[in-house]
Amino acid sequence: MKTLKTATFALIATVSLAACDAADRRDESGSAADPRAPAPAASIAAAGNEAAVAGEAPARRLAPWQSTALLAPDGIDAATATEGHREALSFGTARTTVEGAVAAGSGIAAIGRDVMAECGAGPIDATRYPGGLSLHFQDEKFVGWALSEDDGPRWAMRDGSLGIGASASTIPRGDRFDSTLGLEFSHDGVAGLIENDRVVALWGGTSCNFR
Are 131 and 111 in contact (CB under 8 A)? Predict the structure, then answer.
């Protein structure tokens, strides 16, 4: 009889603990979590380990400020929602494709569209974004970009070498020259301006600078 009572008590305790655990999982009121339940970080790590065992790398979504486009001499690399994945958009890509990719990947909406009618290369349509980024289009094709501010989203070069406010120490003296714009440089396929040994403007592809 004692053995039966002990077994019955153990069974009741087990069922009660399971019920409490289920109730805690259902509770969305913000009350304290069951101390026996794994912490969210541990749960995420466990899920990642399970994915790794299955041969699948767990995908982690990036916040908008982590996923701005990277600038390159031949176009931009637009962020996607998955860490480590970017979409290369070369000059010549359709305007709708470029604008759509930037908006979808970074979550940063354009703040305006302009027409620069008197550029040396002919009229250029520009789409402007926070942080001083301007994407240039001709005949609805992506032809260039320009960067001129350092507030808001941080747009930077694909290789991480240059950005607004970056030290100009990596730019060889032989790539610098004086122009009506100021101390200008042309280096590794991109150009820009230097003030107080800092990069204050960058552009690639077709630009619209009045010298």
Answer: no
Percent of the chain at pLDDT above 90? 43
pTM of the model: 0.66
Looking at the structure of the chain, the number of domains it has is 1
Beta-strand runs (E) in 3-107: 70-72, 75-79, 86-90
Ranked by mean pLDDT, the top range of 28-32, 64-68, 76-80 is 76-80
Distance CA 205, CA 147 (A): 12
The bridge status of strand 124-129 relative to strand 141-147 is unpaired
Domain boundaries, position 170: 159-204
Phi/psi of residue 60, each to 5°?
Answer: -120, 125
Q: Is residue 200 part of a domain?
A: yes
The answer to whether position 100 is within a domain reads: no
8 A C-beta contact, residue 66 and residue 106: no
Q: Which residues lie closer than 8 Å to 36 by C-beta, 6 or more apart?
A: 21
Looking at per-residue confidence, does 109 or 8 come out higher? 109
More confident residue, 120 or 6: 120
Is 137 part of a structural domain of the chain? no
What is the C-alpha to C-alpha distance for residues 104 and 180, in angstroms, rounded to an integer?
Answer: 38
* Cα separation, 42 vs 28, whole angstroms: 19
Bridge partners (DSSP) of residue 86 are 79
Mean pLDDT value of segment 148-156: 68
183 in a structural domain:
yes
